[in-house]
Amino acid sequence: MIKSFSYLFILSCLSISAHNINLYAIQKDSAYIKNSGVLKCFPEDTRTIKNGKEVQAHCEASAVAFANNMLIFANDKPILKPYSPVFSINYTNIFSPIADQLVTPLTHPNFIEPRKIEDFSVSLDNKYIFATTAFDWEKPEEPKDYNGMLIYWLSDDFNNVKTISVLENGVENENIRSYLNSVVKLPYYKIEGLAILPNNKILLGIREKGESYKKFSYAIEMISVSYQEIEGKIYLNNDFKLAYSFNNSKDFVSENVGLSSIEWDKYNDRLLLLTSYEDQDENIGAYLWSLDSNDLEKGNAPVLVKDNSKPFSLNNKAEGLTVLNDHEVFIINDDDRVLKNSLINGVELTRKTNEAIFNIVEFKNN
């Protein structure tokens, strides 16, 4: 009887402790592809508008978020109704045969109107999902800066999507671009990363910067800004600043890489970074990096994640990253219009124009 009580007491203590610690002790710099698959973004006959003409749509998945057992994706090109550039799928359903995948288009106007949604991020309490556009061009003749927007919504409510503005001295300013311009101080830049950090901090990741979209350099830089919630509405504060810059990626990889996604890993107190590359010969690929909170604050170099002592790499152009749990992340690839063979769980296949390749990456345990 005493032994039975002791055993139950020990189990109880272990159960209590399990809620306070990460029981899966990972190697933060060691990972492998656990699973890969193909996502059907929309039907094959889906259309879009290019240069004023209706043409076949390509899946160019640029962002992913995981919340409430759902995966939410964004296509960085417009999609004609009844479909949408933002869509969702139940996590377990993504492993179904392509014909059986049940993808739901999300059609709130604030999903349809923004141009080039490039990244999502989930708040640490799982309450909100945030999204950013690219900020890489501006059309003054349009009623809104559709390419210069941040939006957010409750993670379980896709029917109430709101835009974010800066609150300064009690006055709302929707022109977020002007605040970013004051930090970057260059005619051209492209945002492709978004991460929500502890203490209500947002990071916006810069992939490209320079004189124009034709003359730029790839970058791995991040701008920080804090936010506040007032009566259920999110506002940015006027404290934009360059928070991180990493200029020595060539010391670690041979390709000329730029930032393509960032996400805070709340389970392991670190920032995960995706970088990708592309050239005129259609060579594409990506790398994964880890940056703990101390190194982020000090501006130190990130750790290049490896697989069996070699750099962990993807042969697709990885564009979106989200954390699934304390040891797995989900990556969505945007190969643009490159249709190449991809290795999917040991089998080579070529995706269709309405499909995207995804990977589940697992960090190895100690």
TrEMBL record:
The keyword Signal applies. Keywords: Signal. It comes from the Bacteria. Residues 1-18 form the signal peptide. This is Uncharacterized protein. It comes from Fluviispira sanaruensis.
